[in-house]
Protein: YidE/YbjL duplication domain-containing protein
Organism: Candidatus Fimisoma avicola
Amino acid sequence: MSIINFDFMNFILNPFILLFITAGLGLLFGKIQFGKFNFGSSGALFVGLLVGWGAYTLAQRIYETGDENAAGMSAATQIMESNGGNVINTLFFSASLIIFVATVGLLAAKDLKAIIKKYGPKFIILGFLITLVGAGGTYLSTAIVKDTNPFAVTGVYTGAMTSSPGLAASLEAAEDRADDMAQNYPQLSQEEKEVVVSVLKTDSKYADLDAGELTELTAQQQTDFVNSAVSQVGIGSAVAYPF
């Protein structure tokens, strides 16, 4: 008689389970009143940060044991290898984002004709101005304030603009830029090398790295840098979004 072997770790690291947990806890957290303020649906963002951090940390610890029979090893390998360190598969993320953006467009479409008829091109021009002013302000801030993390700042900009398509574009651009920086690390300027090292240092295992001594990135460091850079965009967006 065969007995069903239920792997709780694989279950809890399943992306669908993580999404349901995050959504449920996020809604509960969003209803908590802090004086006259609550996070509302944005609570899911902060819960997502905690759940994502916890899931990644758990997957990393399981993966680093190297024990193929360890509980959760299948899900941990999926996250660390197939997903490139992302708790949620990139294709799944992109598909969900497309559905979200399409839904917003369909909901807003019914009012588009009435708004254009009533206000003319004013809102269209205003939309461009808000985007450009935000971009200009972000650029000036990074020029004035040194030692900023460009990946996190990019996320803060898209989050402050509450732009989901902007976040998707930023994540894609950050991944391409980070990959290019990792591949060509020896040719980077000293300032760019310091950016790379500062991003790597967000992972505790690289706490002792020194940009002045690091001449080349290992394959693992390159992968970790790209993953951390993309994560910084997401963190910046999540922090800025509710405000």
User: Anything to note?
Assistant: The chain has a mean pLDDT of 84.
